[in-house]
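COMPLEX REQUEST
Ligand: adenosine-5-diphosphoribose
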Amino acid sequence: MVDIEKISKAVEIIKESNHIVVFSGAGISTESGIEDFRSEGGLWSRYDPSIYASYQYFLQDPSKFWQMHKELEGIVANAESNNAHKAIAELEKIGKVKAIITQNIDMLHQKSGSGTYGAKIYELHGAYGILHCVNCGKEFAFEEVDTKRVEYPVCECSGYIKPKVVLFGESLPRSVLDGAMNACRDCDCFIMVGSSLVISPANFMPSIAKNHGAYVIFVNRENTMMDDLADVFIKGSAGEIFTELMKRIKK
Ligand code: APR
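STATUS: Structure written out below.
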């Protein structure tokens, strides 16, 4: 059951704000059928990230990463955005949301129309659709690489091919990180949705926004270690909460 008092407080803040930053994590996409990482039964309970999502490990043996990727790529490619993604796109359309910072690689914000009304999307951990060779840097579109008939794809230069997603041990793209941090400094309201906020530097964002005077709203199923930053914490499912928020914002 959604806490209506908290919804009303968040609506008040959103109505007053004109420069909102949305920060999303895997939890926003669970209602689109993509599992998150750290909830009970999440991806990291089946795949040890220090093996399957480690860049150092990938360089020695890319087969583990690709084993996991093959299980997930169809699910991610076929997923549709849900009510939470759609509400965020609507908030952009009415001029409220100016930037979306996401840890997700699923591109569901773009699928819901975000980014087409002027907001900038910062994909801190990359996106699944583009691959590259870790040796020569050559880029490939998803469809260009045969990942089905091989254990892992290899470039013509013999380097290993990997999606342009950030694995543990890799740096985040500098310009994306800088842009995201600047957006947090400039916003008047910061909405975090669906993240455990345990991964740095992504989890610096809420405190940057807070320290620069923004209202902070958290929408999450579980508590996080950063809950004291939130002016309003609405606990529950993102799709349901954003539906309630939009009903009242549009009134
Ligand atoms: N609505 C709201 N919250 C949800 C929902 C939902 N439908 N489903 C899950 N959640 C919450 C969970 O309770 C959890 O707190 O979303 C959070 C997801 O946390 P994680 O699985 O840790 O995902 P995330 O925070 O995005 O992980 C950060 O870790 O391994 C890396 O690179 C990976 O980008 C990822 C990063």
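REMARKS: The first strand starts at residue 20 and ends at 24. The chain has two domains: 1-33+81-125+173-251, 35-78+126-165.
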